[in-house]
Amino acid sequence: MAELEKRSHIPTVIADELHIVYRVNGAKTGKGSATAALSRILKRGEERGVRKVHAVKGVSFTAYRGEAIGLIGSNGSGKSTLLRAIAGLLPAEKGKVYTDGQPSLLGVNAALMNDLTGERNVILGGLAMGMSREQVKERYQEIVDFSGINEKGDFITLPMRTYSSGMAARLRFSIAAAKDHDVLMIDEALATGDRSFQKRSEARIRELRKSAGTVFLVSHNNKSIRDTCDRVLWLERGELRMDGPTEDVLKEYEKFTGK
Amino acid sequence: MSDRPSPDDGLSAADLAAKYGLAVSGARPGLAEYVRQLWGRRHFILAFSQAKLTAQYSQAKLGQLWQVATPLLNAAVYYFIFGLILKANRGMSHDVYIPFLVTGVFVFTFTQSSVMAGVRAISGNLGLVRALHFPRASLPVSFALQQLQQLLFSMIVLFVVAIGFGSYPGLSWLLIVPVLFLQFLFNTGLALIVARMGAKTPDLAQLMPFILRTWMYASGVMFSISTMLAGRPEWIARVLQANPAAVYMDLMRFALIDGYGASHLPPHVWAIAVFWAVVTSLGGFVYFWKAEERYGRG
Fold first, then answer.
1. Residue pLDDT, tens place only, B27-75
2. How far is the C-alpha of B256 from the C-alpha of B176, rounded, in Å?
3. How far apart are CA B93 and CA B221, in angstroms?
4. Does residue B266 carry a pLDDT above 60?
5. Measured between CA atoms, how close is A131 to chain B, in angstroms?
6. How far is CA B246 from CA A110, B132, B137, in A?
7. Distance from the CA of B254 to the CA of which of A107, B25, B62, B146 falls in 20 to 30 A?
């Protein structure tokens, strides 16, 4: 792998023996009744009634400036969890992630409220991503135009719950993509909206990639990984199974999935 | 397989990170830096609280009218039960008791709903915490701010009730501003404390209504502590009167109601009010910040 011509040797993200464990309350196998829960509480011990899910097991890698890295693996292999841990949104159980600047996950879904108008959601989403009030005001028209929400009438002043799922997804993507990032992480955000919006969003992601130092892309679409990434991490059951140039890893992965 | 050879070969991950000035992702910033970040998010905090407030009634036909109608109906129900059926006024004249009761209910509700929202501030917004970066204290602070705005709507009702029962606006009404400010500080501190506890133990949200109801009955929302405990050792009344909920209620009543004079207030009441506000808000803030990097684990 050493022969891979690298754009730079400046690391932007270093993961060092990273472990992530989710704790789920009340999902312990056995009886789910109240008395069973009570007896679990009364029993001594550190983790009562808590089931642990070890989602990422000792992953280490170093990402360099200018790289576009794809993350592949079957469902539930820990890809999204790993992204969140890199972004510092999920605390690590063991190990550390070092980053240059603040990595950001592309997405604002959680900050938006269905009962508010699209207009207010644009402002709220922008502020939630850490833009200043002036920046939001400046980008507002751009975001609305990009989303194309107003193509079929004045929908931006209606509550988001009245939007079709496609329209809502378009607005969400438009808000999320309005900000530039140092280390950008995209979690299967490519496939939203209708064909013309997909084309526009792919172009926008390419733009974001250019301005970002390092890009991580989670996708099940091998084609979009081939198009955008020059290095791929393959996760399986929370472990890093392979790390290398896109073609090598995808070949093994396709063999593994039997395609 | 995972480590790629590079000129920095042989360096451990920590050394490599140090060499290029990389920082641990998601590490807790220092207290001063944290305050700075939080201040930087002030527009988000305000927008989020207003959004929550508006979203609350957006499906109702009467819309934002409910902001005022809800406290009004609340006051009517309490008046019906405690004023007409139970006759809990105990020697207070009608003109004093009704505003006394309504003030008590609104002021206590302010603290109560701030605590309830605080408990769920982190545990109920895990999606947000796991998706975006911001100082997590933004959430409990924002919820406390939402309750403050809610209270300002209730104050309209309160003014109408006070005037309706013969307490007219005077200079003492200016005291409402510092009282609300101190109570808001206190509530924010409390919301921060329970937010951290609720993030670790979500069960607290189930338990909290009972704790709050007990607190409400012990704080003299529907009755005057000093008259109720007449004949008992004085220190019991003093202790009950020094509890923050009672202090803020009494000060608000003192400011608003003509027939509720200084004789109803415990000694050093302003000092106690400031003490609770400062200690709770600063203590709560530091307590919350100490666990900053652990929120979102679920």
1. 788 999 999 999 999 999 999 999 998 888 878 888 778 888 888 888 8
2. 8
3. 16
4. yes
5. 9
6. 38, 39, 27
7. B146
pTM: 0.83
Residue range A177-195: average pLDDT?
74
Q: Which of A3-12, A183-192, B20-29, B117-126 has the highest mean pLDDT?
A: B117-126
Cβ(A80)–Cβ(B127) below 8 Å: no
Mean pLDDT of B188-209: 93
pLDDT in tens, B128-158: 888 788 899 999 999 999 999 999 988 988 9
Token representation of residue A98: 């070092």
Nearest to A110 among B22, B23, B128 (CB): B128
| CA–CA distance, B203 with A25 (Å, rounded to integer) | 10
> Are the Cβ atoms of A109 and B127 closer than 8 angstroms?
yes
B200 contacts on A by Cβ (under 8 Å):
none
CB atoms B55 and A115 under 8 Å: yes
Please name the residue of chain A whose CA is at the shortest distance from the CA of residue B125. Answer: A110
Residue B51's contacts (CB-CB under 8 Å, 6 or more residues apart) are A113, A116, A120, A124
A235, closest residue in chain B (CA to CA): B2
Q: What is the pLDDT of residue A2?
A: 40
Structure tokens at A161: 């719950």
Across the interface, whether the CB atoms of B297 and A59 are under 8 A apart is answered: no
Shortest distance between the Cα of A71 and any Cα of chain B, in A, equals: 14
Give the CA count within 13 Å in the CB-facing half-sphere of A162.
12
* Shortest alpha-carbon distance between residue B67 and chain A (Å): 16
* CB-based contact A1 B47, cutoff 8 Å: no
Nearest neighbour of B22 by CB, restricted to A100, A124, A240: A100
